[in-house]
Amino acid sequence: DADVVEGEAVGGHRVVVVLLELDDEGRGERQARTGGGGGGGGSYAALPYSTGFESGSLDTYWTTTSTGDGRVRLLTTNGPRRGTYHMTMDDSTSGGFSRNEAWLHLDLAGHPRVDLTFWWKEFGDETHTEDGVYFSSDGGSSFVKVLDFDPAAVTDDTWQFYSLDVDQLAASAGLSLTSTFVIKFQQYDNYPMTSDGFAFDEVQVTAGPITAESEPNDDGASADGPMGDGTAVSGTIASSADDDWFYFDVKNAGTVEIVLDILGSADLDWYLYHESDLVTEVAKGYTTNDPESGTYNCSVARYFIRVDGYQGATSSYTLTINGAGVTALSSPGPLDAPEP
């Protein structure tokens, strides 16, 4: 189960946090690759970008730096949010203060709407002014803080979900979305985990909403998204073996309408799934109607829609979801509160 808590980023922008009780723990660790800090850095990722750190190593879009005895590591211990690894920050010794930074390099040029989501938790960490998320539009030569972490205000060892409107926060800070944009995650304290320390998991940066499918999107793992409230998405069931998958995020629980307009005489159907179970649908539209429409009372979560042709039917279509609680950007409003 998850609880939703509202807060404010630096500058007064609304941030939604979902609290999730920790219930898992793994073993092992990897040291995160270091470098960058100071404007050097890796390649710049195109959107959409996401990582759960599951390779056990940071990809080429990340650089890390630490002062003193600080360290940034990819661990399987201390309960990753999902999967095997998460990224952690702490001090290797007790007493001396250290600062840890993890820089994510992004190419945001040409994207007017960008969203960042991630999960964060702390381990008995005190609140320091250095703790937070920072933006840079010049490759890391200078940073502006856009979000404060407040470890003292939350429950230890409890995952929290953050969704940030990157374009609005950047504009408020006087920054442009450039091809050398950097998002910095930062922690400051003086003890090893679990007396102090942060952990991060499931970092995602997306631009949306989408307006057309992009193959391959034949299963939940390759689903296109995010879909936005009232934004039609065009697609085609091209063969009897073709299924099209999409996802959308619900930031406020409520009724969502799904409308499948079939551009022809074929019989297409849709099936709706909660992120916790991509096998058993929670709702479906499987009549011979055109449009094929229906509603479902959604909780705060990510949902998936599968479109397929009845008995091998093929056709082009448009798919639209309508609901005040559906985020207009990627996973990213108060959304993605997946079940463990």
Write the layout of secondary structure elements.
Elements: E1 2-8, E2 14-21, E3 29-31, E4 49-51, E5 62-66, E6 70-75, E7 86-91, E8 98-106, E9 115-122, E10 132-136, E11 144-148, E12 158-165, H1 166-172, E13 181-189, E14 198-206, E15 233-237, E16 243-250, E17 254-262, E18 268-274, E19 283-285, E20 292-298, E21 301-309, E22 315-322
Antiparallel strand pairs: 1-2, 2-12, 3-6, 4-14, 5-8, 6-7, 7-14, 8-13, 9-12, 9-14, 10-11, 10-13, 15-22, 16-21, 17-20, 17-22, 18-19, 18-21
Walkthrough of the structure:
It is a single chain. The chain starts with a strand and ends in an 18-residue tail after the last strand. The protein is an all-beta fold and 340 residues long. A hairpin with a 5-residue loop joins strand 1 and strand 2. The longest helix is centred in the middle third of the chain and has 7 residues.
